[in-house]
Amino acid sequence: MEYQEKFFTTFRTNFQIFVPQLAWLIPGKTLEEGLVDWKTDFFDFFHKQIKAHREKIDLDSDESQDYAEAYLKEQKRRIKDGDKETFSDKQLSNMCLDLWFAGLSTTSITLTWTITYILHNPDVQKKLHEELDRVVGNNRLISTSDKPELQYMNAVINESHQCVNLVPVNLFHCTSRDTVLNGYQVPKDTGVIAQISTVMLDEEVFPDPYKFNPDRFIDENGKLKKVEVLCPFSVGKRQCLGEGLASMELFLLVANFVNRYKIKPYVHGLPSLDKSKNVTVVPRKVVAKLIRRHVQIDGLFVKNYFE
């Protein structure tokens, strides 16, 4: 993660991505060299993990604890049937890389920014705790079944997506055929970008878009308001395949963390909201004081009134 943050956020790397013809003008490691080093380190790590996983699990059991275990069991079944190609270790490593790059880093970035925004807005944290006390009421683990009742929690996560604007410059695609868009001729092989950040920061849709305001997603009845143009996972056929998983993970992580702790700034002050120093959005380094909201007395968790 540290290498990913450092290498992919440098000016040289982003200059090579957007102006590849002139990349040779800037000294240092090329984008291709950086990607090779990055992939090599990751694949070495994944190969070791796969080997350790294979030695640890029971390949003959019907239950699987995770994706890799299920994959390795299917691999064994296919090898037994004479198929040694489709479920290879190399393919599993590639799948792990996809999950890591597209799933772990994006979720961790959004999570750290969400905590940062909550720290900067104590009134938001107060409303979250009031809702959690009303709906959950104790220290139990929050599950996805609680999601429909935690309206304000969902609004905070939606507002985090809008303010974080995780992909300020979306992924590049090209047209597969000649087409017409709103009267404009777009030839085949034209580079196109679904520039969702222009929507996320559109003041007609999100007034004062740089202000963290979860109430914009709450209607007059206190219910979560669906805003169709909120599209943090992009749009169209190429939108993020992991949207459902990422949304579930983010809800569970934020809801359980905020339910368990009251978050206060540490002596160093609040984490920065400045994004101008990086070309891409990177995780916030958050140093904060955590106070348990519930304490255990005689085996029961009760609210900590001394927080």
Automatic annotation (TrEMBL):
Gene3D superfamilies registered for this protein in UniProt: Cytochrome P450 (1.10.630.10)
Transmembrane segments: none
The keyword Transferase is annotated on this UniProt entry: no
Keyword terms, alphabetized: Heme, Iron, Metal-binding, Monooxygenase, Oxidoreductase
GO molecular function: heme binding; iron ion binding; monooxygenase activity; oxidoreductase activity, acting on paired donors, with incorporation or reduction of molecular oxygen
Annotated InterPro entries: Cyt_P450, Cyt_P450_CS, Cyt_P450_E_grp-I, Cyt_P450_sf, Cytochrome_P450_fam2
Cofactor(s) needed: heme
Annotated positions binding heme: 240
Keyword Oxidoreductase among UniProt keywords: yes
Pfam family, one: p450
Assigned protein family: Belongs to the cytochrome P450 family.
Protein name from the UniProt record: Unspecific monooxygenase
